[in-house]
C-alpha cells in the first residue's frame, strides 16, 4: 500500500465526504450550506434532550427531596465527535458526566462506527462506554434516561 492510500483516513470518512459531494448537484462542487446543515442538525435536538433530562430531575427532586436544590444539566461540545452532558450541583462545587452524545456520524478506534444522536453512558470524565443506549432522535429518546444517568445495558 502506498503512503497516499494510508493518509486518506478510515473508510467511513471517505464515504461521508462522498455523500456530501452528492448533495451539491450535478456539477460535483460541495455545497457549503448543505454541509453545515448536516453538521448542525443534531444540536437543537440535543438541547431538547438536555431540557428533558432537566425536567426529569426537577420532578424527582420536587417529590423526593423538596428541601434540596436541583442540579443543573448542560451540554458541552468537547469535540466534533462528542457532546458531554454535564450535571452540576446548585452551588457549583461538583460536576459529573450524565452522558455522551455523538453529534455527527463518525468513526473512532475504540467504538468503531458511531451514528449522529447516539446516547452513550459515561465511562470516565473524558470517555464514553462502548455501546449506545438510545438516540436523541427517538420520540422517547430511546427510553434510556433516568434521574441519575443513563441505564445499563440489559
Structural description of this entry:
- The protein is of the alpha+beta class.
- 32% of the residues lie in helices and 25% in strands.
- It contains four helices and seven strands, in the order ααααβββββββ.
- It has a five-stranded antiparallel sheet with strand order 1-2-3-6-7, with helices on one face. Strands 4-5 form a two-stranded antiparallel sheet.
- It is globular.
- The termini are far apart.
- The model is unreliable at 1-30 (pLDDT under 50).
Query: Largest beta sheet: what is the strand line-up?
Result: 1-2-3-6-7
* Structural class based on helices, strands and sheet pairing: alpha+beta
Q: State the order of secondary-structure elements, H for helix, E for strand.
A: HHHHEEEEEEE
Arithmetic mean pLDDT: 78
Strand proportion, as a percent range, falls in 15-25%
Q: State the helicity in percent bands.
A: 25-40%
Question: What's the Cα radius of gyration?
Answer: 18 Å
Q: End-to-end distance, in Å? A: 42 Å
Largest sheet: 5 strands, antiparallel
Number of strands: 7
Shape: globular
> How many helices does DSSP assign?
4
Q: Which regions are unreliable across 5 or more consecutive residues at pLDDT < 50?
A: 1-30
Amino acid at each position: 500500500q502506498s503512503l497516499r492510500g494510508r493518509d486518506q483516513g478510515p473508510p467511513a470518512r471517505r464515504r461521508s465526504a462522498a455523500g456530501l459531494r452528492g448533495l451539491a448537484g450535478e456539477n460535483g462542487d460541495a455545497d457549503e450550506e448543505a454541509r453545515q446543515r448536516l453538521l448542525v442538525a443534531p444540536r437543537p435536538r440535543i438541547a431538547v434532550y438536555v431540557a428533558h433530562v432537566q425536567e426529569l430531575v426537577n420532578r424527582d427532586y420536587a417529590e423526593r427531596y423538596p428541601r434540596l436544590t436541583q442540579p443543573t444539566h448542560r451540554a458541552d461540545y468537547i469535540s466534533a465527535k462528542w457532546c458531554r452532558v454535564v450535571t452540576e450541583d446548585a452551588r457549583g462545587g461538583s460536576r459529573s458526566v450524565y452522558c455522551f452524545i455523538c453529534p455527527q456520524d463518525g468513526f473512532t478506534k475504540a467504538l468503531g462506527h458511531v451514528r449522529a444522536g447516539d446516547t452513550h453512558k459515561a465511562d470516565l470524565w473524558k470517555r464514553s462506554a462502548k455501546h449506545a443506549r438510545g438516540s436523541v432522535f427517538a420520540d422517547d429518546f430511546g427510553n434510556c434516561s433516568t434521574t441519575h444517568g443513563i441505564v445499563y445495558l440489559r
